[in-house]
Design a protein that fits this description.
The structure holds 2 protein chains of 2 kinds. By secondary structure, chain A is of the alpha/beta class. Chain A is built from 15 helices and 8 strands. In chain A, the strands form 2 sheets. A 4-stranded parallel sheet of chain A has the order 2-1-3-4, with helices on both faces. The chains are: A alpha/beta, B alpha/beta. Chains A and B meet through α2, α3, β2, α4 and α5 of A and α1, α15, α17, α18 and α19 of B.
């Protein structure tokens, strides 16, 4: 069967089995990069699914955990678990926050002696998916019918790559975007130097790592550097902006949400 | 958790090289300005990384090997007392003598006493990180005994009055032109026409060391492994210098951390596959020496083993940190670490640099005495992926950060500004109403931005804008957009 028919079939199947998806937008996207959250909603609705935004959500607590403030993170973890416990499928437009939910929530709860919360956190984490995981594994689509006529390079963020192991899912989605000129990023799997509060506590080392990442991004000649995490993009984009380098950072969701009508 | 075992002593200060003289960010800032260092490190780590990746990819059962290595070490650490006692009795039964040292000072005292008793004023040494950890060479020098490092890179470091910057490639921060200069300056018996051709540099070191090997009465080594079942010690090296030190002197003293014991001979089959591929990117190690007690008329006739704690039982007591004691010192984590690659080993201020050093040093000394090291990582996870015994270094870093914050809080009445900010952020984030209000307040940040970017932020965020623009808060948050588009929070929009 030709690829186009396969893709259509998958889209039809996707519509038949419409899924109600709860969005955990993340505090960073909510506050500073709402376009990543809006794109996630538009994309999923275009694919025929229902999106809800549980209003009780705030932050996954990763910044607190990774900076040593586990006790302070505990109420945030409890809030995530209580807000999303009733949902069937949860999507997060961030590999890093997904990683924290999956690998840190239960660990922190257990370390602080709340075994019941740890068990509930594990249950909710099992229903939580990063965007590219949701699209490929749950919704079974690799062609979302996007159109994005730009030269793009993809940075596989550390937590997407090594914490939740999204593998090449984002690249499979990007390769199916019409009009895209996808170019490989040299030394793609090396950290950009963000690392949360690392970027401030060790600003010099962080900047040195960013310098090498930017050198590789600029070597591709891409107009757009994309990734599945607004945090890493804020870092890379902040460096490129300071240098007036002429390359933008755009969240993966925004590319997948773009259609011919947008352009 | 450590608090349950609060009485267990960490490695005491004053002796050895486990503590940084200055915080990591300050040392790193200085290292980053050294262009020669950046180039030397970038080139060397890229070469070793590529070699490792090639030989690891050859093995279809690499993941099973890693798991076997992890499991053996976990089991050993869980029953460390039993295996150490077995090692002691087997080693003693075969003619060796075992000594126990609680800390660096005690270990140094024991070794110095043994060398003095053997009537030697010079010893030859096999590369050993532990003897560097406890500052043995300084202790020997204070007793009038000169220690000669016989590993080529350790010799370069010693002659350069320098410190190792990598556990496997101690002179990784030096290039061959720098090494030639050190040899010409420091090696009394060197050919003045020495070039910086690597074989010529190696030959100069060989000639220099050969005289030392043939005259030494005492050899000192570390140990990569000790087999409890048979009392066998094992040293893994690449140059043959180790074999000289282990066989020629009359007295052999091995100084070993208590975590190096493995239960059985067969366990070496796992580690001798994992170690060379992870360390030097070789399929098999060039010189693997094993000795079991004394063989009459052949090799050293006085064989000693000094078992050193120096903070290891304190690390053992920290359940979340304990897996760090499984480290087999391959250095694969350093070679893949983007932080190490840019700053080098000296910035960590301990004989254990890189990702494993950032966890091991604070575990041995107590986290308050190496407080900046657990933060010397972006938590990118590359170290965990390559670790041959599957030490989850990022998780241990996160755990040690929590220990640092909790112990600092318990030890002080006044919280620091970071703790206040973190508590405030958590208070805000714990309630959607407070959170939304804070978002509205954050939009004041729009006043700072020009042309879509903020060029300068006040402390503590000034470090961000020293080299990076910050995003201007958008006109409406996602939450506000959702409320406008989807008729109130919590609502979903039907399938179209």
């Amino acid at each position: 069967m030709p690829e186009a028919i396969l893709a259509t079939a998958r889209r039809v199947l996707g519509m038949v089995g419409a899924v109600r998806i709860a969005l955990f937008v993340t505090c960073l996207a909510d506050t500073l990069f709402p376009q990543a959250g809006r794109a996630t909603v538009e994309l999923l609705e275009r694919l025929g699914h229902e999106v809800e935004f549980p209003a009780g959500q705030t932050c996954c607590g990763q910044m607190h955990v990774n900076t040593g403030y586990q006790r302070q993170a505990l109420p945030l973890i409890r809030r995530y678990v209580e807000t999303f416990a009733r949902c069937d499928v949860i999507v997060v437009p961030s590999g890093s926050c997904t990683g924290s939910i999956r690998h840190q929530h239960a660990m922190v709860a257990r370390r602080l002696g709340d075994e019941r919360l740890a068990r509930r956190a594990q249950e909710v984490a099992a229903k939580t998916y990063e965007l590219s995981e949701l699209l490929t594994d749950v919704l079974g689509t690799e062609d979302v019918g996007a159109f994005y006529p730009h030269r793009v390079t993809y940075h596989p963020t550390c937590h997407s790559l090594r914490m939740i192991r999204v593998g090449d899912r984002p690249l499979r989605l990007l390769r199916n975007v019409a009009g895209i000129d996808l170019v490989e990023l040299p030394a793609a799997d090396t950290c950009c130097g963000f690392g949360g509060t690392f970027a401030v506590k060790n600003a010099d080392v962080s900047t040195a790592m960013l310098a090498d990442k930017m050198r590789n991004v600029l070597a591709t000649g891409a107009e757009v550097c994309t990734a599945g995490d607004s945090s890493c993009l804020m870092h890379i984009g902040g460096g490129l902006s300071r240098l007036r380098a002429g390359t933008r950072t755009v969240h993966l969701a925004e590319i997948l949400a773009a259609t011919r009508e947008h352009s | 958790m450590s608090s349950a075992f609060g009485k267990i002593p960490a490695a005491p200060p004053g002796v050895g090289h486990l503590r940084a003289a200055e915080p990591f960010p300050a040392a790193a800032r200085r290292a980053l300005t050294d262009a020669q260092l950046r180039r030397n490190l970038g080139k060397a780590t890229a070469t070793i990384r590529a070699k490792r990746a090639t030989v690891v990819a050859e093995l279809p059962d690499w993941e099973e090997l890693r798991e076997a290595g992890r499991a053996i070490k976990a089991r050993t650490l869980a029953h460390l007392d039993r295996y150490l006692c077995q090692l002691e009795s087997e080693f003693t039964a075969r003619g060796g003598t075992v000594h126990w040292a609680r800390d660096a000072a005690e270990a140094n005292r024991i070794v110095t006493g043994l060398v003095t008793a053997a009537g030697a004023d010079e010893v030859v040494k096999v590369k050993s990180i532990l003897t560097d950890e406890i500052g043995l060479n300084d202790a020997l020098a204070a007793a009038g005994i000169s220690a000669v490092e016989t590993d080529l890179a350790e010799l370069i470091v010693q002659l350069g009055h320098d410190r190792p910057s990598h556990i496997l490639v101690p002179a990784i921060h030096r290039n061959r032109a720098e090494i030639r200069k050190i040899f010409l300056r420091e090696m009394g018996d060197v050919d003045p026409g020495l070039t910086d051709d690597p074989p010529a540099l190696a030959e100069a070191a060989r000639l220099h060391l050969r005289r030392k090997f043939l005259s030494a009465k005492v050899g000192i080594s570390g140990a990569n492994f000790a087999v409890a079942q048979t009392g066998t010690l094992c040293v893994v090296e690449s140059e043959g210098n180790g074999r000289m030190c282990l066989t020629l002197p009359e007295t052999l003293i091995t100084v070993m951390g208590i975590e190096k014991v493995v239960p059985a001979w067969d366990d070496l089959g796992v580690f001798l596959q994992l170690l060379p591929r992870s360390a030097t990117g070789e399929r098999m190690n060039p010189y693997t020496s094993m000795w079991t007690g004394v063989t009459p008329g052949d090799g050293p006739q006085q064989v000693h083993l000094v078992l050193v704690d120096n903070g290891r039982t304190a690390a053992l007591a920290d359940e979340a940190g304990r897996p760090a004691l499984a480290c087999i010192r391959c250095s694969a984590c350093m070679n893949v670490c983007p932080v190490y690659e840019r700053v080098g080993g000296h910035a960590y201020g301990s004989v254990y640099p890189g990702p494993i050093g950032a966890v091991l040093s604070p575990l041995l000394t107590g986290v308050q005495e190496n407080a900046s090291l657990p933060y010397a990582s972006s938590l990118c996870g590359a170290c965990y992926d390559v670790c041959p015994v599957k030490i989850d270094i990022p998780s241990i870093l996160v755990h040690l950060r929590a220990r640092h914050v909790e112990e600092a809080r318990d030890g002080s009445r006044l919280p620091d500004p970071e703790a206040v900010a973190m508590a405030a952020a958590a208070y805000v984030m714990a309630s959607p109403a407070r959170y939304a209000a804070a978002q509205r307040g954050g939009r004041l940040g729009r006043l700072l931005g020009r042309q879509g970017a903020i060029r300068r932020l006040p402390p503590p965020l000034a470090g961000w804008t020293s080299a990076r623009d910050a995003p201007v808060p958008p006109g409406q948050t996602f939450r506000q957009w959702w409320q406008r588009e989807h008729k109130g929070p919590g609502a979903g929009r039907g399938v179209r």
